[in-house]
Design a protein that fits this description.
The chain is built from 1 helix and 6 strands, in the order ββββββα. The protein has a single domain, classed as Thrombin, subunit H, CATH 2.40.10. A 6-stranded antiparallel β-barrel has the order 1-2-3-6-5-4. By secondary structure, the protein is mainly beta. A hairpin with a 2-residue loop joins strand 5 and strand 6.
């Protein structure tokens, strides 16, 4: 039997990733609260660059600005970096508000 998360959202690796410098506290079932640093984010998922003790298929719940609590599954791990896919796609209006708060430096924001 195959392990790991069974996600309904297809692989969206081509989604635009927005560089951010944002720390969150994630709720992990086995490890409790874990501080993670989000390095980039899209409407479908995010990448952290300082992760320890989390494996592929692990489930986390994080709180994001304008989005609130959202569940994410670890899709890949490479060293201390890991990629997570949200259990649902974030609505465009909520995503834009979130990026505005997570990227206070206008130079990092994507030009409209």
């Amino acid at each position: 039997m195959a392990g790991g998360a069974q996600l309904s959202v297809t692989d969206m690796r081509r989604s635009t990733r927005h560089p951010v410098d944002y720390s969150v506290i994630a709720e992990h079932l086995q490890h409790g609260d874990i501080t993670m640093h989000i390095a980039n984010i899209s409407a479908h998922g995010f990448m952290v660059d300082d992760l320890d003790g989390v494996g592929r298929g692990d489930r986390m719940i994080i709180r994001l600005p304008a989005v609130g609590r959202i569940e994410a599954y670890c899709i890949w791990v490479s060293g201390k970096r890991a990629g997570f896919q949200f259990e649902r796609i974030i609505r465009l209006d909520a995503f834009q508000a979130m990026i505005k708060e997570m990227q206070p430096n206008p130079a990092l924001r994507r030009r409209s």
